[in-house]
Specification:
By secondary structure, this protein is an alpha+beta fold. The protein is built from 9 helices and 8 strands. The protein has helices spanning 10-20, 23-37, 57-100, 106-120, 128-141, 150-158, 168-172, 295-312, 318-331, and strands spanning 181-182, 187-190, 194-200, 211-215, 219-226, 229-237, 242-252, 256-263. Strands 1-2-3-8-7 form a 5-stranded antiparallel beta sheet. It has a 3-stranded antiparallel beta sheet with strand order 4-5-6, with no helix packed on it. Strand 4 (211-215) and strand 5 (219-226) form a beta hairpin. The radius of gyration is 35 Å and the shape is flat.
């Protein structure tokens, strides 16, 4: 089987698992299918046998498949452990670097200013030990002697934006970017039918009237209203269409604008806005919630589950029941050769393909 081919059956298998409710019964369904419909449990006892497996071969095959995915699971665990250790190491290094590069505290700057003033006015001069300490500070603070700029420049240097995650597995760990991504000015996540965007806002933005959101089926623009005018936080054209009637936005005061978008089509998005970096949708979780399954698909899954339990009990399945219902109507009709006889379903062998379900 080609890599990734097994994922083609995820939706069907997921529907079965959600209906039976647990892994043990799910495995019973799978192995029951092998028992009823294949020669998986049939033994090759004679050289002339054409179907089946040698004794122990089927069990060895199951064990081999189990061990294959068990190794993959252990490798995933080890990979996650190493990534966590690497993340912790980088965090510790970043904290150590930030501590080493922390700007000189304000009192030292005051010593420099006072000593300069005293020297210019002919006043008392600081002892030699302190004078030797001041020039070390001066080169780094020479441009900051202007009162408004000194603390602001240092604060901006300390508030450098963190490095954004790049890999999809990093996005998957964050609920705000699950099946989506973290971008410079917003994060987004998605399921099969909807997207959710979170656009951070300044802390003083606490009222809805301070925000402007222009949303159409093909574009979005999010801005905050300042005294000096609008500050655009996010703007661009969507890579796909959205349903504006089913989309809405709200403000989490001082935190973010939350935009919920309803997709015009049921497919996975690789990017929200045109021109931005695309994610690899092969690395996201494509499982569909049962809440996103429409009534027609629900009906199919219910019918399959009903048929499965009927077959286990040796009772007619849905396609047979439907034909039986039609036959009963003509069984006792005028001119029927079966009129007056008891209706016997065993007289009919009905294949599933003989009935079309609406």
């Amino acid at each position: 089987m080609e890599p990734g081919a097994a994922e083609l059956y995820d939706q069907a298998l997921l529907g079965i698992l959600q209906h039976v409710g647990n892994v043990q019964d799910f495995l019973r369904v799978l192995f029951g299918f092998l028992y009823r419909k294949t020669d998986f449990y049939r033994l090759l006892r004679r050289p002339s046998d054409r179907m089946g497996f040698p004794p122990g071969a089927a069990q060895a095959l199951v064990l081999q498949v189990f061990q294959t995915f068990d190794r993959m699971a252990r490798q995933d665990d080890e990979k996650r452990r190493k990534e966590l250790e690497e993340k912790m190491r980088k965090k510790e290094e970043a904290e150590a670097t930030a501590t080493e590069q922390e700007p000189v505290p304000a009192p030292v700057l005051e010593v420099e200013v006072n000593s300069t003033t005293d020297a210019a006015s002919g006043g008392p001069v600081e002892p030699q030990g302190q004078q030797g300490a001041v020039p070390e500070v001066a080169p780094g603070s020479q441009e900051d002697t202007e009162p408004p700029g000194s603390d602001t420049g240092a604060a901006q240097a300390r508030r450098e934006p963190p490095t954004l995650p790049k890999r999809q597995e990093q996005f998957q760990r964050n609920p705000d970017s699950y099946n989506g991504a973290v971008r410079e000015n917003y994060t987004w996540s998605q399921d099969y039918t909807d997207l959710e965007l979170k656009v951070p806002v300044p802390k003083h933005v606490v009222k809805g009237r301070q925000v402007s959101v222009a949303l159409s089926s093909s574009s979005i623009r999010v801005a905050v209203l300042e005294e000096s005018g609008e500050q655009v936080l996010m703007e661009g054209k969507f890579t796909h269409k959205v349903n504006t009637e089913s989309s809405l936005w709200s403000l989490e005061p001082g935190k973010c604008v939350l935009v919920s978008l309803n997709k015009a089509g049921e497919y996975w998005w690789s990017a929200v806005l045109e021109g931005e970096e695309h994610i690899d949708i092969d690395q996201i979780n494509k499982e569909r919630s049962m809440a996103t399954v429409d009534e027609e698909e629900h009906a199919v899954l219910d019918r399959l589950t009903f048929d499965y339990h009927q077959k286990l009990q040796g009772k007619p399945q849905s396609h047979e029941l439907k034909v039986h219902e039609m036959l009963k109507k003509g069984w006792d009709a005028e001119g029927s050769p079966f009129r007056g006889q008891r209706f016997d379903p065993a007289m009919f062998n009905i294949s599933p393909g003989a009935v079309q379900f609406q």
